[in-house]
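Our consortium's second objective concerns turning raw sequence data into structural hypotheses that experimental partners can test. To show how far this objective has progressed, the report includes one record in full. It was chosen at random from the queue rather than selected for favorable results. The single chain below, 348 residues long, was entered without modification.
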Amino acid sequence: MVAPLHWGLGHATRSIPIIRALLEHDFNVLLASDGGALLLLKKEFPELESVELPSYNITYPKKGSHFKWKILLKLPEIKKTMDSEEKIVKQLVRDGKIQGIISDNRFGVRDKTIPSVFITHQLNVLTGSTTAITSKMHQKIIKKFDACWVPDVEDLVMNLSGKLGHLKQEQFPIKYIGVLSRMEKKEVPKTIDILILLSGPEPQRSILEEKLKESFKHSEKNVLMICGIVEKEQKWQDFSKLKMVNFMKSDELEDALNKSEIVISRSGYTTIMDLTVLEKKAFFIPTPGQYEQEYLAKRLKDLGVVPSCKQEKFKLKKIDKAIVYKGLKTLSQQPVNFTELFSLFEGE
C-alpha cells in the first residue's frame, strides 16, 4: 500500500516514481489517499485498485502568521484521523489485502505485523519558537515505523533539504534514498518563456493565482499557468494573454517544464526535487506562514541558486533576477536503488 498525505499534490507526485518502481519489481500496489491526491494517482495509474483514507483537512488561514496556531489547534482532529487510518489499515491487513506499507507523511498508516515505511524530508519540523516541540513530536511518530526514507542525499553540505532532512544526531535508522522525481530532463526547444506552477491548500493557492493573473495579464511573454486543481476533465482557458490549464498529468507536465525558460512556483520540497532533476531556472514564492517553504526558499536564495520573495511583495520585474542566479542543478548521485529499498518487503 502506497499512501501519500493530501496536502497539496507534492506528496502524491513524489510517490509516482516509487509506484512505477514497485510495479517494475513485480509488486502489486494498492493506492491510498484522499481528495485531489488520490484523484491524481488514479489518473496516473487507472489500472490499480485504490482505497480512500480519511482527510486531514489541512487548510491555510488568509493570514500566514496564523498558520502555526491553526495547525496546533487541529491536533485533536489530526489524532482522530490517525486513529481512523489505523483502523482501516488493520482491516486491510486482516483481510490479507496488504503485506507492506509505504506511508508518505500519513501518521496512522502503519501496522506492527507488516513492514511499514515512513517517507519524509522533515526530520525537523520548523514552526518558529515551537520547532523543538514539533520536531520531537514528529520524530516520536517516525520511530514507530520500521524504516524512515528521506528523499535527499546524505551529504551535509550539497543537499536539498538542509536542516529539515539532516539531524545532528540520528535518533533512529534513516535511509537517504536520493532525489525522487517523476521527471526526466530532455533537450527540447524552449517555447514557454514563463511557466507558473501552482499548488498547495486553499485559500493560499487561489490568492497567488489571482495575484499572478493580474501581474501577467499584459505581459508580452509566452506564459503558461498550471493551476494545480485536479478535476475529472482537463480544462484549458485564456485569461488576457495567459494560457491556463487546471492540471496536467506527469508526461504533459514533464514536456511543459522541459520547454520552459523560467518556472515560478511555491518552494515546496517535491517541486524543488523536480526542478533539480530538470536543471531549471526558477523563482520561488513560499506559502505565507509555512516555515518549511520559507526556510527552503531562503536557503536556496542565500546559496545563489534561486531567487524568491514574499507573496505580498511580488512584482513582475523581480522575475528578471532568475537569470543571474545559478539555477537548480542535479546533485551528483547514484540513481535510487529501489531493489535494495524494496528488499524490506520481500517474503520468505
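The partners drew two points from this record. The chain has a mean pLDDT of 92. The chain is about 30% helix and 15% strand. Both points have been shared with the crystallography group to help prioritize constructs.
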